């Protein structure tokens, strides 16, 4: 396949792409003439934010790509893309991904077989890759389908003199996007002190922030994982569906489609080890006002409690919070720790009927209509 004769001069090309970034047209639109000269099927601009070697966030702007394709890649497949992984490791420059990732290996990859091949997607890739000091990896990727010829030395030579300009515009675009990433880092710092796990989702169910507590839970590999879409994943199908409903309910309440949060907003995620399940609450956020938060942010906060390691509320705290007597506070603390009324009565050497009277008083003072309601209330408290 030959290169088009309509190759832009480096000077004219540079002026156009700098202007495109500054006036908001977008880099993907500005490099369309270069993509045409390379006779590509599609092209895309990626910004990938890494922290401690882990991909935290990605942004994708496509040329000739449908919005659902760029969203699907940005939210899910970029974390599984051998090209993106290799580009982050290779350093700066013009990369022919067919040399970095062997074609035979790429043909066996999940991203090709499950996502690209059914729609005749990108199979050959030529990439201009930049690494910024703040951990951002920027890529301008040019694609051809499996039916087209692979990129060769002629295409690489075409990109070489243009690379300095591509590099500067990628770094400029990264600086313009940095405010959003700095906000995410500030939120992460604010949530770091919480014992509960925190996953903050935007309205497209994409992860904005996670805190160290939830990352430690995920590292145990005991029924909990981070998912690009939806925030959390679990191998239990029923719990997975309940979690998706909880997030959906929270999003619906933001838009006013439901007036009250339904029961689906609280979900238990079973753990293969047999330990007590993770407890997840989905909370709608309307115009979040927090240091570092994007202005007017709306989304969903997932609060994850590891009941196995949670500090259960003690009797003095419960007595102060709800005006309980010493006997009622002792029973409430026992219920919060997972013991039954009968077990508590046996431990305290009192009649079960007496403990039931204490339970009735606790329910009256807390406003809980049932033992299940009381248990849920106590489950939200620590200390």
TrEMBL record:
This is HTH luxR-type domain-containing protein. Signal peptide: none annotated. Gene3D superfamilies: Winged helix-like DNA-binding domain superfamily/Winged helix DNA-binding domain (1.10.10.10). It comes from the Bacteria. It comes from Falsiroseomonas frigidaquae. Residues 321-378 form the HTH luxR-type domain.
